[in-house]
Specification:
Distance between the termini: 19 Å
Structural class: mainly alpha
Shape: elongated
Radius of gyration: 17 Å
Largest sheet: none
Strand content: under 5%
Length: about 120
C-alpha cells in the first residue's frame, strides 16, 4: 500500500467562502497525499503545516478575545469553532509526531538517514 487516502481529501477541493491567499495551501490535502516513498519529507511538510495551523488558531483566539464574542460557551458558534479548531490542531500535531517517529524508527532500523531522497 503506497498511498493513504481519507475522507478529508474531498474537503481539499471544496470551495470555501473565505478568501485564502496562495501562500496558505489547503492543509487537508497534505494528509490525503501521504506516500510511503516520500514519508520523511512529507512528515516535515506536515509538521510545518501543523505549526501554521496552530499559529492561525492562536490568531483566531486573539481576535476573538479582542472582541465581545463568547469564547467559553461551546453552545455558541464561535465557541464551537474554537473547540473544533483546537481539536483539529491537536490531531494534526499528533499525526505529525507519529509520522516523524515512524520515519525516525524506520531509518534507524534500516541504517539510513532520516532525510528524504526525493
Amino acid at each position: 500500500m503506497k498511498k493513504a487516502t481519507n475522507a478529508t481529501a474531498s474537503y481539499a477541493t471544496t470551495p470555501t467562502c473565505s478568501k485564502r491567499s496562495p501562500a496558505h495551501p489547503p492543509h487537508t490535502r497534505l494528509f490525503s497525499e501521504i506516500d510511503e516513498d516520500r514519508l520523511a519529507s512529507q512528515a516535515d511538510e506536515l509538521c510545518e503545516a501543523a505549526k501554521t495551523v496552530q499559529d492561525e488558531r492562536e490568531r483566531l483566539v486573539d481576535r476573538a478575545q479582542a472582541s465581545s464574542l463568547a469564547l467559553n460557551d461551546p453552545s455558541r458558534p464561535y465557541g464551537i469553532l474554537l473547540a473544533e479548531a483546537t481539536r483539529l490542531t491537536e490531531e494534526a500535531e499528533h499525526s505529525c509526531d507519529m509520522l516523524r517517529h515512524t520515519t525516525d524508527c524506520a531509518h534507524k532500523t534500516n541504517g539510513t538517514p532520516a532525510q528524504s531522497t526525493a
